[in-house]
Amino acid sequence: MNVSKDRPPDRRRPGSVSIRDVAQRAGVSIATVSRTVNHISTVNPELAERVWKAIEEVGYLPNTQARALVSGRSRMLGLVVSEITNPFFPELVQEFETLAVAQGYEVLIGSTNYDPARTESLLRRLLQRNVDGVAVMTFGVEEELIQKLVESEFPLVLWTRGPTCLTSVS
User: Whole-model pTM above 0.85?
Assistant: First the structure.
């Protein structure tokens, strides 16, 4: 996309504007845009202001997948519940998400419907998405899977009832 400094860009679908477009619009390097977006304090305040203005003008949205590759952190948390329609869970899910967002995380939520195979599938999919941690609030989680997560030192909060409990995984 060729962005002229004198005319506003056409608004394309989110994510189609690159960091290069921002750098060109602001008249700075890609590295300066990156440092500005990542809130690195060594960026000259005047340059940072130009970058933020260019970001607004071109409609730039940072690519969270690219950031996750570079940082090794997805800024996503997984939340696994037994049954999303159970009246116990909506308030819990809302508070979990509120706290996560306040810390800069997104939340991926899955419901097991009390099916151990579905629970295992959900956990595996969350791990494949490179979540930074998982809260499991269900029962029927296979102890072998929990043990693997514990042994790998994967951040895990487990709230369950039934044969597997917190004391058995610590």
Answer: no
